[in-house]
Design goal:
heterodimer; A: 285 residues; mainly alpha; two-stranded antiparallel ribbon; globular; B: mainly alpha; Cytochrome Bc1 Complex, Chain C; 16 helices; 2% strand
Chain lengths: 285, 426
């Protein structure tokens, strides 16, 4: 033990002396604590609210989709079971008039099979969501050098998921005096970052970071078909719910299956335990 | 146990088969009539649970491979295709992803049980070493499997771990290039990782067969650590242990299913839902939870090569454990001093995992300023993991020394003896 300890201490010491390592001043990333939000789909019994998903899709369609793609979704997914536009009447989402109508508004590139020419045609439910930019470079060029991220998995790809999305969308704040905001950037306390080098004010730099996205939501930016008042909080809440659905469309099915599985396993464990007690009854151990 | 088989073929066909390929006899002697100590506790059920885990991983993995595309441009989307479009694909993938965690949870319990009850001691050294080989194969398989979805954490995890080879003097760089199949982690790397990820589980299955073979020669160890002396001490494996293992598996599956169906991403990292992008390094690169203790040991050492050697050494020591701990008493039930150091060892392993999940410079006590010792603050996870790593190694030295120093408690004469005595008293 002593030999090992000495060996480790010696090797640590030697290496330090040889390399002259110093602790680099680590930049600390900060982020405000995410807002707490109530979601209908939270918890083991949670379900998506279809009206909210429809409102959320409208926010994505009218606002977000100007810059953000959702490459993993097809128009048919909107009419999938559990989706925003599902109806019992149309179990096959490709035949859903809602999916067809939504898709038809988009022109997508294709090849004319008679002539081989590049053409555009109205989208069908089986087409993927049309992306706002032809490629990543075009997206970068149009957005001051930073490409808007794809939103298909946004609700799973960030710590906090839909809470993070809601907090960012409703969290834009005026930069505190003393904070140098670079052109094309916006201060958001919920966006993880390190503002130390931009801070001239007293004390510690403010929490949060600079985001390249200008505040996207304003009151009445969209008109909800169900008459819900379109406040910034409502729009953010609905679009975050929509993105949570889009990131995992099978979430409800997963939980429902889970209940059946757990009930089965609990009963089965009970039966096995009873068998175990019976079989071992005569063995002293 | 080998030797006297009690199998008697009853039908014409089984008699015919038994004279040509006694496979039914083998199964009967191994899993039906196999004499097993009657005092095995629930810690012994994890062997069966592990076999179940391996089976689940292979079955779900084979189905996933039917839909997955091992190409750097298509891999991420093919996994999402499984999640969204394949019938019950979400379930198969969540079972496979969480199954890896469940597999490691079970294997760690199985290994700690082996250490506590001295299951590596003669005549079970080969059995123990085969187990260590299985564990190494599991680590390699899990690491390569985590790379396959080609998310940010997949990619940068692969970069960090393959770069460890670069720490080796002279040959390091060539080995890394050879592993990558190029000059960076890229499509060739993904392809070979997929190939090996598919191959290794079957190698694990092969070593599992040897592991069970090596188990069935000396028979099971048991919580008292004394050898089986008479028929009194044992019960046939079936139905006594098939039912007990079955019950334990079912309870284990409840935990498994809770993760799969109600918190499938709890053990994963959000960054792995971002497609791999070599130009954007994630803020924190962390491995899966089951590698965190080793990650902490690696980072505890300032020199890369020494760190790599310390990390692999921490696993390597397990292989020679039977020759480090020379105590004649197997079970730590009768070794109070060793038991104390063993319990500390478990806590140290868990704390090393905690260290691995933090940034090295994170403060342990947020309100305490601490002071710099050599290269980093004493109140940081760097120093904590150094102290813990020293204990990790010291534990083996302690076991070695205790073999000579420790005065163990009296060991019962046989498995049945104490039970019979207790029976008479009662």
């Amino acid at each position: 033990m002593l030999r090992k300890t000495t060996f480790i201490a010696a090797s640590v010491g030697l290496v330090l002396a040889a390399m002259g390592l110093g602790a680099p001043a680590m930049a600390a990333t900060t982020q405000a604590e995410l807002k707490s939000v109530n979601w209908s789909f939270e918890g083991p019994f949670g379900k998506f609210n279809q009206e909210q998903l429809q409102r959320g899709y409208k926010v994505y369609h009218d606002v977000c989709s100007a810059c953000h793609s959702m490459n993993l979704l097809s128009y048919r997914n909107l009419a999938d079971k559990g989706g925003p536009f599902y109806s019992d009447k149309y179990p096959n989402p490709n035949e859903s008039p809602y999916a067809k109508a939504i898709a038809m508004d988009f022109m997508v590139p294709d090849i004319d099979t008679d002539t081989g020419d590049a053409i555009t045609r109205p989208a069908t439910p089986s087409d993927h969501f049309k992306a706002p930019f032809a490629n990543e470079y075009a997206a970068k060029a149009a957005n001051g050098g930073s490409a808007p991220p794809d939103l298909s998995l946004m609700a799973k790809a960030r710590e906090g998921g839909p809470r993070y999305i809601y907090s960012i969308l409703t969290g834009f704040a005026d930069a505190p005096a003393g904070l140098m905001v670079p052109p094309g950037k916006y201060y958001n306390p919920y966006f993880p970052g390190d503002l130390t080098s931009f801070w001239n004010g007293p004390g510690k730099a403010p929490t949060g970071g600079f985001i390249s996205m200008p505040p996207p939501l304003t009151p009445d930016r969209v008109t909800f078909d169900d008459g819900t008042k379109a406040t910034v909080a409502e729009e953010a809440w609905d679009v975050a719910a929509f993105l949570a659905w889009a990131a995992e469309p099978h979430q409800e099915e997963r939980k429902q299956t889970g209940f059946a599985v757990l009930i089965y396993l609990l009963l089965f464990s009970g039966v096995l335990y009873a068998s175990y007690r019976t079989i071992w009854r005569k063995i002293s151990h | 146990m080998s030797g006297h088989s009690t199998y008697e073929p009853k039908t014409g066909f089984t008699r015919w088969l038994d004279a040509r390929l006694p496979i039914v006899r083998l199964a009967h002697d191994s899993f039906v009539d196999f004499p097993t100590p009657k005092n095995l506790n629930y810690w012994w059920t994890f062997g069966g649970i592990l076999a179940l885990c391996l089976g689940i991983q292979i079955v779900t993995g084979v189905v996933l491979a039917m839909h997955y595309v091992p190409n750097a441009n298509l891999a991420f989307n093919s996994v999402e295709h499984i999640m969204r479009d394949v019938n019950h694909g979400w379930m198969i993938r969540y079972i496979h992803a969480n199954g890896a965690s469940m597999f490691f949870l079970a294997v760690y319990i199985h290994m700690f049980r082996g250490i506590y009850y001295g299951s590596y001691k003669p005549p079970r050294e080969i059995l123990w070493i085969l187990g260590c080989i299985i564990y190494l194969l599991m680590m390699a398989t899990a690491f390569m499997g985590y790379v396959l979805p080609w998310g940010q954490m997949s990619y940068f995890g692969a970069v960090v771990i393959t770069n460890l080879m670069g720490a080796l003097p002279i040959v390091g760089k060539s080995i890394t290039t050879w592993l990558w199949g190029g000059f960076a982690v890229d499509n060739p790397t993904l392809n070979r990782f997929f190939s090996l990820h598919y191959l290794l589980p079957f190698m694990i299955a092969g070593v599992v067969v040897l592991h069970i073979w090596a188990l069935h020669v000396p028979g099971n160890n048991n919580p008292r650590g004394v050898e089986v002396k008479s028929k009194e001490d044992t019960v046939p494996f079936h139905p006594y242990y098939t039912v007990k293992d079955g019950f334990a598996m079912s309870v284990f599956l409840i935990l498994f299913a809770s993760f799969v169906f109600f918190m499938p991403d709890a053990l994963g990292h959000p960054d792995n839902y971002v497609p791999a992008n070599p130009l954007v390094t994630p803020a924190h690169i962390v491995p899966e939870w089951y590698f965190l203790p080793f990650y902490a040991i690696l980072r505890a050492v300032p020199d890369k090569l020494t760190g790599v050697l310390m990390m692999f050494g921490s696993i390597g020591l397990l292989f020679v454990l039977p020759w480090i701990d020379r105590s004649k008493v197997r079970s730590m039930r009768y070794r109070p001093t060793a038991r104390l150091f063993f319990l500390i060892f478990i806590v140290v392993c868990l704390l090393l995992g905690l260290c691995g999940s933090h940034e090295p410079d994170d403060k342990i006590f947020a309100n305490l300023a601490g002071f710099n010792l050599l290269d980093s603050n004493l109140n940081s996870y760097t120093w904590l993991s150094r102290f813990l790593a020293v204990y990790y190694y010291a534990f083996y030295a302690i076991l070695f020394l205790l073999s000579w120093i420790e005065k163990p408690l009296p060991v019962p004469e046989s498995i049945s003896a104490p039970v019979l005595k207790a029976g008479k008293k009662g």
